[in-house]
């Protein structure tokens, strides 16, 4: 799932600058993250109206990154959209760009920050799993990703700061390299780590205009 964090209301109020605004949420990831579902869109609408900012309408897209669904649902809201000067989107960066492409004549405001692909571990608790590097290396590390989960993206073992299973950058998080080694030891595959990995080819993460 794509994990997002809602920007704070004060920042959004500044961006909207008292202009009529139309609010857009997303029925999938942003709903599960509680950053852009119906509840959050309605809460933001109330916050704006309390500050006398006109909200011309709102919609929850299904989902915001689905261009064809968006076209249909935005058409149903054409009048409300016409009355707005700005569009505030509570979705991931992908959804926000889909809207920006469909409504180029309006100013688009990103209502969230997009963080990573994550696993849902508890309600409202997400663990970073993938940063979409373009060349998955999980088979080299027994299914655990040091590219996304090690703050230094170490590919050939832990840095010198790994201590008692914790990361030197943040003691609250585990050193993923400690887990990789423990797991591979248990499976008897530790020897595979002696193959030195070359620096990652980050150009693969930046392929532009890629269509699948
Ligand atoms: S190696 Fe790359 S694609 Fe695979 S999980 Fe890690 S960041 Fe994601
Ligand atoms: S302590 Fe472990 S997770 Fe943290 S930066 Fe070093 S190798 Fe990466």
Can you summarize this structure?
Helix content is 31%, strand content 21%. The protein has helices at 9-16, 29-32, 38-50, 67-76, 78-82, 93-102, 146-149, 176-187; strands at 2-6, 21-26, 55-61, 86-90, 107-110, 112-122, 125-130. The two termini are 19 Å apart.
Tell me the fraction of residues in β-strands, as a range.
Answer: 15-25%
Residue runs with pLDDT of under 50 for 5 or more positions:
none
Structural domains: how many: 2
Oligomeric category: single chain
In CATH, the homologous superfamily of the largest domain goes by the name: Response regulator
Strand order of the biggest β-sheet:
3-2-4-5
- Structural class label: alpha/beta
Which ligands, by name, code or SMILES, are bound?
iron/sulfur cluster
Q: Quickly name the level 1 CATH class of the largest domain.
A: Alpha Beta
- State the share of residues found in helices, binned by percent: 25-40%
Query: Total number of β-strand segments?
Result: 7
Overall residue-averaged pLDDT value:
94
Shape-level CATH architecture of the largest domain:
3-Layer(aba) Sandwich
Order of helices and strands: EHEHHEHHEHEEEHH
CATH topology label of the largest domain: Rossmann fold
Shape descriptor reads elongated
Give the CA-CA distance, first to last residue.
19 Å
Question: How many strands, which pairing sense, and closed or not: the largest β-sheet?
Answer: 4 strands, parallel
How is this fold's topology laid out?
Layout: E1 2-6, H1 9-16, E2 21-26, H2 29-32, H3 38-50, E3 55-61, H4 67-76, H5 78-82, E4 86-90, H6 93-102, E5 107-110, E6 112-122, E7 125-130, H7 146-149, H8 176-187
Parallel strand pairs: 2-3, 2-4, 4-5
Antiparallel strand pairs: 1-6, 6-7
The structure holds iron/sulfur cluster (2 copies).
């Amino acid at each position: 799932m794509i994990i997002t964090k809602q920007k704070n209301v004060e920042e959004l109020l500044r961006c909207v600058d008292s202009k009529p605004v139309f609010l857009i949420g997303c029925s999938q990831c942003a709903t599960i993250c509680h950053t852009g579902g119906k509840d959050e869109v309605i809460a933001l609408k109330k916050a704006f109206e309390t500050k006398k900012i006109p909200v011309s309408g709102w919609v929850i897209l299904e989902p915001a990154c689905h261009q064809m669904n968006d076209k249909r649902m935005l058409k149903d809201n054409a009048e409300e959209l016409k009355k707005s000067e700005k569009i505030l989107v509570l979705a991931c960066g992908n959804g926000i760009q889909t809207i920006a492409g469909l409504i180029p004549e309006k100013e688009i405001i990103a209502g969230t920050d997009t963080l990573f692909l994550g696993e849902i571990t508890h309600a409202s608790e997400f663990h970073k799993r993938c940063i979409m590097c373009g060349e998955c290396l999980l088979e080299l590390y027994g299914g655990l990703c040091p590219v996304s989960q090690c703050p230094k993206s170490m590919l050939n073992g832990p840095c010198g700061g790994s201590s008692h299973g914790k990361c030197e950058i943040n003691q609250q998080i585990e050193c993923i390299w400690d887990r990789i080694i423990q797991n591979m030891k248990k499976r008897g595959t530790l020897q595979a780590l002696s193959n030195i990995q070359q620096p990652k080819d980050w150009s693969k993460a930046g392929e532009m205009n890629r269509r699948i």
